[in-house]
Design goal:
mainly beta, 2 helices, 9% helix
Length: 142
């Protein structure tokens, strides 16, 4: 599967963390998260994901909580093999991601893009390894 199949704007349908040891899947940003990923013909991607129903904050503690209920990053990507794309992160909601490579396995069936992350420890689930599993619906093509 090549670059041309990924091109477009995709709306997030679900985002779960699949725990390696138990296989349990947990919603990372609630049952109905909000998000989009844009994948452009010049090999750039940008994604923003948030929990639904977030409320504005009027203090630093509330601002920190808002930070925990979102993620965003962008960069140039390349196709690696038949089913993987790797993004060289240039800007991110989390500064630790800047300058890293984020590898994702993907498949597309009809207009549904499925993305799986590499196994990782995630701060939302301390001490548990797992993979992110994302489902996206194509909303438009480039």
């Amino acid at each position: 599967m090549g670059h041309e199949n990924l091109l477009g704007v995709w709306k997030l349908l679900s985002l779960q963390f699949a725990v390696t040891d138990s296989g349990e899947c947990r919603d990372m940003y609630g049952a109905d998260p909000l998000g989009y990923i844009f994948i452009t013909p010049d090999n750039r991607m940008i994604t923003v994901i948030t929990s639904k129903g977030r409320k504005p904050s009027d203090n630093e503690s509330g601002d920190a909580d808002l930070f925990k209920s979102m993620m965003a990053y962008s960069g140039r990507f390349r196709i690696d093999g038949a089913d993987q794309f790797v993004t060289e992160v240039e800007v991110s909601w989390h500064p630790g991601w800047v300058g890293t490579e984020q590898a994702r396995t993907f498949s597309i069936v009809d207009d549904i893009l499925s993305i799986t992350t590499a196994e990782t420890l995630h701060p939302m689930f301390p001490g548990q390894k797992g993979r992110g599993i994302l489902k996206w619906q194509r909303t438009s093509a480039f």
